[in-house]
Amino acid sequence: MTAVQGESLYQLPEEHQEIRQAVRAVCDAKVAPHAAEADENSQFPQASYDALRAADFHAPHVPEEYGGAGADALATAIVIEEVARACAASSLIPAVNKLGTMPLLLAGSADLKAKYLPPVARGDAMFSYCLSEPEAGSDAVSMTTKATLDGDHYVLNGVKRWITNAGESAYYTVFAVTDPGARSRGISAFVVERADEGVSFGAPERKLGIKGSPTREVYLDNVRIPADRIIGEPGTGFATAMRTLDHTRVTIAAQALGIAQGALDYALGYAKERQQFGKAIADFQGIQFMLADMGMKLEAARQLTYAAAAKSERSDADLTYFGAAAKCFASDVAMEITTDAVQVLGGYGYTKDYPVERMMRDAKITQIYEGTNQVQRIVMARQLLKGLG
Ligand SMILES: Cc1cc2nc3c(=O)[nH]c(=O)nc-3n(C[C@H](O)[C@H](O)[C@H](O)COP(=O)(O)OP(=O)(O)OC[C@H]3O[C@@H](n4cnc5c(N)ncnc54)[C@H](O)[C@@H]3O)c2cc1C
What we know:
The protein has 389 residues and is of the alpha+beta class. It has helices spanning 14-30, 35-41, 46-54, 73-86, 88-107, 110-122, 237-273, 285-314, 319-349, 356-365, 373-386, and strands spanning 127-130, 146-150, 153-164, 171-177, 187-193, 199-201, 215-226, 230-231, 275-276, 279-280.
């Protein structure tokens, strides 16, 4: 038998456990109290943003060289998980800041990174990611937004749909067609600013959940940007978009974990308090089995998500598979756990007087965005059949 002196064989490093405690303290005090209100009023949770920013949890992944906290992929996942446990809509602040900036981090020039990352690190600006279009969702390659080179500028025209934090974010990674005949190799990525002439936004979508997170269309009407705002070489945008999602699907998995943990924690407390037939409902085996299944599935999802986060940090060859698997599994589990949490609360769970109905509505989106779970299964099957899984 091999003994690892002074080190645990298989547990979170102490530093990561401390990060969890620190985020939980901030979220219990300053994020959770606004969650119901953000949901009820469909309003961006500014108080959460301010609290996360003050504690440097608004964009923890930004490397230290750009003034960021320099959190690794696992620490970033833990931050997002803990924020989502309190308020799923607020967890899209660190999650979408990572999504929006990841193309820059993976493929941007030194100048672009130096210009656009420090404001995000400081919390002066948020960064959104514009891939989807009205007619190009799962089939993102069919996008029609165009970027045309005109001297030393690109001119962008098109409509991006379902853009998280649109209007709130100062910066946008926009994917657009630069070579119409070349399909996925004819797409390029650009940094667009909210302040650029010709950029405007649609009305906020009226959604089932994550209501505090604004989702809008982004309109690009002859938006003229300097050519050096291209991220990477022309024609590499789609590859950058997919590489980004490999990393950020891990953060959606983390969001799903957090939502599910919030629901489980609430259901456990309720089951001990609620009395029927002269005893706490937690004494009934039917409830106990439900709680046991919820805890078991959540922990399995967490282990897969953290393994995927480690692979993201190392950019392992099988990250594509693990990112898809973690997102798909954790989001399916979050939907099951939040639905069961409503069941544990009975009729009360079905009302807005208790948080689990919000958590159930919020969980649903994790099965849809950053690629639906059908798309994740396509990705996983492809990787398995290639022999990379
Ligand atoms: C609240 C919200 C926030 C979002 N934020 C962003 C964002 O910030 N940036 C961004 O770019 N996008 C964002 N999206 C878009 C999101 O990623 C897309 O909605 C998603 O990829 C699915 O695209 P679609 O809605 O067009 O569905 P469709 O692609 O039309 O899919 C409809 C159904 O068909 C299924 N389907 C499609 N193709 C296949 C196939 N080949 N095999 C089997 N089933 C298939 C899907 O799984 C789904 O069930 C957001 C969406 C929402 C709702």
